[in-house]
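Long-time lurker. I teach an intro course on protein structure, and each term I like to show students one example going from raw sequence to a predicted 3D structure in token notation. This year I'd like something fresh instead of my usual example. Would anyone be willing to generate the tokens for the chain below so I can use it in lecture? Attribution to the forum is fine with me.
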Amino acid sequence: MLTFDDGTVQVQAAESGGPQMAATVYEFGPDLTLRGARMTDSFWEWHRRLEQEGRIAHSAELCPERQGLEIQHWTRLTGWTSARIPVR
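-- Reply from a regular --
Happy to contribute to a lecture. Here you go:
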């Protein structure tokens, strides 16, 4: 987790292990509202390796995750809900 001078918080979620860890980086505003996400370059390298191994049927360029990520969040008022967040 990183916190910046403007109050922005970034959280990195590991998607794979090893020295070239694939990760998704989530960005939150100072009030901890989720602003968006991005995948690291190593995430896309990992994706391409999985393509070559035949474990993923679509290319990194056409990956549905580029269109946004579905997340679940909880509030006291609504309970658990799903939302799609933008990916940069």
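Some talking points for your students: The beta strands are 2-3, 9-14, 23-28, 34-39, 69-75, 79-85. The chain has one domain: 2-85.
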